[in-house]
Amino acid sequence: MKANKVTNFRVVREKHQQELRRGILDDVSNLLVQKGPNAITMRRIADTVGCSTTILYTMFRNKQGLVDELYLRGFELLRQSLAAVSYVDDLRNYIYALCLSYRDFALANPTYYSIMFLKAIAEYTPSEANLKLGQASLELLVQAIRDCITDQPEAEEEAWEIARIIWATVHGHVGLELTGYANYSKASSQQMLERALQALVNELLPTIDQG
Amino acid sequence: MKANKVTNFRVVREKHQQELRRGILDDVSNLLVQKGPNAITMRRIADTVGCSTTILYTMFRNKQGLVDELYLRGFELLRQSLAAVSYVDDLRNYIYALCLSYRDFALANPTYYSIMFLKAIAEYTPSEANLKLGQASLELLVQAIRDCITDQPEAEEEAWEIARIIWATVHGHVGLELTGYANYSKASSQQMLERALQALVNELLPTIDQG
DNA sequence: TATTAACAATAACACTGTTATAGAAAATTT
DNA sequence: AAATTTTCTATAACAGTGTTATTGTTAATA
After folding, report:
1. Does one domain contain both B55 and B66?
2. Could you tell me if A77 and A51 lie in one domain?
3. How do residues B103-162 score in pLDDT, each as one tens digit?
4. Which residues in chain B touch residue A38, judged by CB atoms under 8 angstroms apart?
5. Interface membership of A181 toward B (CB under 8 Å)
6. Co-location of A83 and A111 in the same domain
7. Cβ–Cβ contact B129 with A under 8 A
8. A69, A25 Cβ separation under 8 angstroms
9. Parent domain of A24
10. Considering Cα of B110, then B114, then B120, then B125, what sign does the dihedral take?
């Protein structure tokens, strides 16, 4: 009975720990969004949360571990952005919508995007495992492309390759936009991205040209 | 005479200052390339150069000012990379070569590229003026595109727009490559970039399709 | 209740960018 | 040529960073 009691308590405390952990991450996330990546310091986090830095280190090992969670959160948000895109008429427009949703996410969450792709926190570089987890967030895009080329041989590899090409293009446009490199023409950044996407889809996914 | 002497001396000293300045920047550049962006600290620079930090502050105002120079150096190196590309057969291949040269520069100088486009040094964000100076390094690409569409109305704006689109694509591919996002297919990063470029040129510069 | 184990706050270490202080060197004036 | 002023630069400090050893407190066990 005693042992049972103890384990029960431990379970409860464990639960508490997880809630606390999530609470802290919420605070850190707010800090990130409102004050920017430079505000992510261990002392400041400890202050806002109301604990000492020691706790942060026992819970997250170090700053890398803490930012790891932000990194994964960012990709989860990105995944949700893509998942919120509803398939309307055809694959072609669906792919466009996914890419624009990607852009919207980046512009709406520039601080997250900076962590994910622009090395905004110098002390942080994602682990190999997290890089892969990140890429998995693009699964919906890959699936859409897969659906376009089911007839082709080696469709799986080809789908990933095309997805990667499209991804790189969207990322490039968004990246320049976020880094401040303006365009000299009247066209908006979104319009230019759309032009690029149309070109890519026309050439790389000709099967849905007359969609 | 005395006044003349003094000014002469001042001129010489001014010259010395400029040499010194360039020498320091060379050292900092080496530090950047060999030890990475994190090694760019004022104390470390002062140590390698053999002076106190005070001098760095009087010469470059602050770290921002010092990195500004690295930033401009990076774009100058990029410009030289592009300038080294010789026009061989036709505009189409010339544009491809420019883009691949851009990529080569980025891969050969990842630390410079990080400063220019990723936020590798947290304390640094380029000024509006430097952003424009940076973009000017792409003039050769813009000119090549201009040559393709001279017949079009508003060719100037259109040239910049297409250049920007192509730039974003190259930047995106390179960016993902440098940030560690691998591709799941067998195709090399260069091959995927080439596929993307072909698609873009086919669609955006149709006048040279049958080049 | 006494002892042991887990925990967390404080303060320290080695860094960072930046600057005020103080002292040395050079240029000017007498 | 001597005295004064100006210019410069090295030192040391301030406020901040990530991280951790020390120390005291709290909770779990015997």
Report:
1. no
2. no
3. 999 999 999 999 999 877 777 889 899 999 999 999 999 999 999 999 888 889 999 999
4. 122
5. yes
6. yes
7. no
8. yes
9. 1-60
10. positive
